[in-house]
Amino acid sequence: MNINDYIMPEDFDINNIEEKDITHYKGKTHWRQTKEEAIYEQAIGYKCKKCGKSTNSMSWAMCKSCREEEEIERHKKRTIVEWDGVSPIYSNHTDKWFHSYEALEEYCEEENTPIEKMLLVPTIKEEHRYFNIENFVDEYGVYDTIEGLEKYEEQINDILKKINDDYPAYTPDEENRLDFNWSIL
Ligand SMILES: [Zn+2]
């Protein structure tokens, strides 16, 4: 991003940047080493790289409505699959997880959001973390040998697997999307 992509406050005037010396320029609150940094600190957004409107934030290169448009485009390209009825449902639009269809319906009702706007995807159960005794010994370095310790590897992995079975972790499936028989976007 360069200075031309910044949105500056209405009363901003580049000639008014306070300058102490060659390495001190006043930003909004701090003294900066370059004029560019001082300008950056006073900027209130970027020009959206898609539509040119302000992003109203220095954290995004695109404005909210363009980001939403892109998300919808991405969503449309996903393959429609059926929900397995077990794994949580993830909403790309709200960044929320739903553990039942009822919870999802309730949310949509409360927030007055049509369900098709939620951009719902299935989720994939994660593998359990695998414990490796050699890595453990390497990391802690207090044992001369792993001899005799190998038996713990299996035991610990059994426990990790059990934890994961009882309290599974999921990640959103970015390849697929869910269809609950509503009109698809
Ligand atoms: Zn935009």
Mind describing the biggest β-sheet? 3 strands, antiparallel
The level of helicity is 25-40%
What is the spatial order of strands in the main beta sheet?
A: 2-3-4
Shape: flat
Could you explain how this protein is built, in words?
The protein is α+β, with helices and mostly antiparallel strands and 185 residues long. It folds into three domains: 3-43, no CATH class; 78-126 and 169-178; 133-166, no CATH class. The protein is built from five helices and twelve strands. It has helices at 35-42, 64-76, 101-111, 133-140, 150-166; strands spanning 6-7, 19-21, 24-26, 31-32, 45-46, 79-81, 89-91, 96-98, 120-121, 123-125, 170-172, 176-178. A three-stranded antiparallel sheet has the order 2-3-4. It has a three-stranded antiparallel sheet with strand order 8-7-9. β2 and β3 (24-26) form a beta hairpin. The mean pLDDT is 90. It binds zinc ion. Zinc ion (ZN) is lined by residues 48, 50-51, 53, 62-63, 65-66.
Map the helices and strands:
Elements: E1 6-7, E2 19-21, E3 24-26, E4 31-32, H1 35-42, E5 45-46, H2 64-76, E6 79-81, E7 89-91, E8 96-98, H3 101-111, E9 120-121, E10 123-125, H4 133-140, H5 150-166, E11 170-172, E12 176-178
Parallel strand pairs: 6-12
Antiparallel strand pairs: 1-5, 2-3, 3-4, 7-8, 7-9, 10-11
The structure holds zinc ion (ZN).
A few lines on this structure:
The protein has five helices and twelve strands. The protein has about 180 residues and is an alpha+beta fold.
